[in-house]
Amino acid sequence: GENVEQHxxxxxxxxxxxxxxxxxxxxxxxNYFPWYKQELGKRPQLIIDIRSNVGEKKDQRIAVTLNKTxxxxxxxxxxxxxEDSAVYFCAASKxxxxxxxxxxxxxxxxxVQP
Amino acid sequence: xxxxxxxxxxxxxxxxxxVELRCDPISGHTALYWYRQSLGQGPEFLIYFQxxxxxxxxxxxxxxxxxxxxxxxxxxxxxxxxxxxDSAVYLCASSLNGQxxxxxxxxxxxxxx
Lengths: 114, 113
Prior knowledge:
The complex is a heterodimer of chains A (114) and B (113).
Chain A: E1 4-7, E2 10-14, E3 19-25, E4 32-38, E5 45-51, E6 56-59, E7 62-67, E8 72-77, E9 86-92, E10 103-104, E11 108-113
Parallel strand pairs in A: 2-11
Antiparallel strand pairs in A: 1-3, 3-8, 4-5, 4-9, 6-7, 7-8, 9-10, 9-11
Chain B: E1 5-7, E2 10-13, E3 19-24, E4 31-37, E5 44-50, E6 53-56, E7 65-68, E8 75-79, E9 88-95, E10 103-104, E11 108-112
Parallel strand pairs in B: 2-11
Antiparallel strand pairs in B: 1-3, 3-8, 4-5, 4-9, 5-6, 7-8, 9-10, 9-11
């Protein structure tokens, strides 16, 4: 089955700096890659997603890049703010073409220091 | 509109007892998923419903776990003979038919003493 590796496990940045979180996946048939943000004791919330037919997607301060050949994808947060502090999870699935269940990475705890 | 809701928010039970966890998906969402999240880890898939039927139950850890969705809306996750290792947050998610985006509920925190 699919295996998703995520790193780093913790990341501390100064407010205004950029943060990058990286994930690799094992199943070349995976074609949908969402990123979720989870604050302590709260539900995971989708912040951005990308499908395998594009290499990059941006939404304001957040961007995701995908390298299908290398089977890795990354989350980039620019101009970080204290409210960006949370645990971020990457995930992968086959979407409409197969297994819809998401396989998650182990998470990255991002701390933005004011 | 209203998001995915789950009840109870917290459940404490004793080893060996039976528990039921409920999920109310977003109205109109035909796909419903159950995940389990242990402390410090990402959610792990348990079961996926498309309408009333379980389309994929490959994530259920053993036969103590069972889930139903009799009318294609609300779903109940049932755990028999609970064990301490079942302690986790049980998350439910739903999505529109044909859409990959999954919206999560707040979870039920289960503690087995």
